[in-house]
Here is the input.
Amino acid sequence: MKKVKIDKKRGEKWLPWVIPALILIVWQGFSGIGIIPARILPSPTEVLKAGVKLSASGELTTHISISLWRALIGFLIGGTLGFILGLFNGLFKYIDLLFDTSIQMLRNIPHLALLPLVILWFGIDETSKIFLVALGVLFPVYINTYHGIKSVDRGLIEMGQAYGLKGFSLFTHVIFPGALSSILVGIRYSLGVMWTTLIVAETIAANSGVGYMAMNAREFMQMDIIVLSILIYALLGKLSDWLAKLCENKWLSWRQLS
Amino acid sequence: MDQKELLVLKDVKKSYSSLSVLKGINLTFQQGEFISIVGKSGCGKSTLLRIIAGLEAAGGGRIMMNGSELQSLNEAARIMFQDGRLLPWKKILQNIGLGLSGDWREKALEALRSVGLEDRAHQYPSSLSGGQKQRVALARALVHEPQLLLLDEPLGALDALTRLEMQRLIEAIWQKNRLTTILVTHDVEEAVMLSDRVIVLKDGNVAVDQVIEMPRPRQRANPAFTKYSEEILAEIMGTRSARGTVLVALSH
Ligand SMILES: Nc1ncnc2c1ncn2[C@@H]1O[C@H](COP(=O)(O)OP(=O)(O)O)[C@@H](O)[C@H]1O
Ligand SMILES: [Mg+2]
Here is the structure.
């Protein structure tokens, strides 16, 4: 009985990886027999070789770390601003009346549409990329923090007040934990926005970073490096999502039945 | 028996926009009394209780607690709600310790013990049954050692057996602490079973203020029990019989 259960668990762990592995195998196979020409799509081993070569020269690490740095700084700035705005608008009626409508209007401008303007303002140095990432991250974090706080069960707030909580203690014991799952949804979503924004910004307006590496490779028809860049972006995206999920599991552990 | 007035309501009114919910409630609650408030759904029982708890301001009249007028939160009262309102993100012990400071753990454990759930201290509320949740909510109210315990249909959502068990627990705790208790319920038998006095709210007024004189523990089989229950129910439903009645109607 017990053994069957363990096997089942292991199966559940590996099952999600079956399709990616299958694709990789088929891709490698088709490239090998020439169904996919190298000019269209290099084989996985070619991509791997390009990765090894670029790591050896230190180029890859430089590009990845600069992209990571931009993502992180932009995320921190935008996320913090969005969180604070969401918090204050969610908590205080008059601040809400003052800001929310304006924020909702700004939210309807796709932040990537600002790219030409941003290049004119800041050139193609770090500020432009960080600005765009921060802007992209700000709104999802704002909206979800705001709604999270607005949708905390009124009954629980009343109960907290009846038990002597007010101000900051009411916030830490009742309002913030009640809003947390929504806030985390916002953060997880904004991590996706963070990477897409960075990809676009780095592809168009940069002279370093993973996006630049891909654009640069395009000029020399280095297919393997282009595909490598795409895969790196995918991995970074997966990594940040995984981290967000880890936080979710840790901070929302009460949601699982104990 | 020397009696002290703990809570006095003088002409308490409340309306929501055009809806007049309480039209001038006059009531006096003695220290150590167990009082039930009954009435149809929507007649303003919860509103009255929230006003007594200081969670909501009255639209008129005065609320005197311990001789002084209630201005904001009633610090000497603790309220328990029908839906428990435990914080799902806090373990049971932390839920009970909510709003306590200093050496709260020992007190919270003691309170949890008094409702017989000390072994669940470190679990989340989601692992409890409905009746257990209400017991935790009761412990959370008791741990503050309030002078006044307000119960807003705390047993309304429980099944019949759990209800009986909880009624016994509430009565036992009341007998032990002689804690002034106001129970809001729509179950007339529950009110008669537990209370020294039953108050019927109707059309925003106190329709009946009935002292229940029966020895405890009370038996449902007691003819007086049936009589009280039937009379009060008739009063609520507006089908009170014309023949002789033990009820004293307070009409202002
Ligand atoms: N915050 C509120 N705003 C408007 N109407 C309310 C509010 N609270 C209660 N009411 C109304 O007041 C009446 C009495 O409500 P309540 O005290 O909850 O009744 P009960 O507890 O006796 O069922 C109901 O008609 C209800 O709709
Ligand atoms: Mg009610």
In short: Chain B is about 30% helix and 25% strand. The pocket of adenosine-5'-diphosphate (ligand 1) is lined by residues B 16, 21, 39, 41-47 (CB under 6 Å). Chain B touches chain A at residues 53, 55, 73, 75, 78-79, 81, 83, 85, 87-90, 98-99, 123-124, 126-127, 140, 144 (CB under 8 Å). The domain at 1-76+149-155+184-252 of chain B is CATH 3.40.50.300 (Rossmann fold).
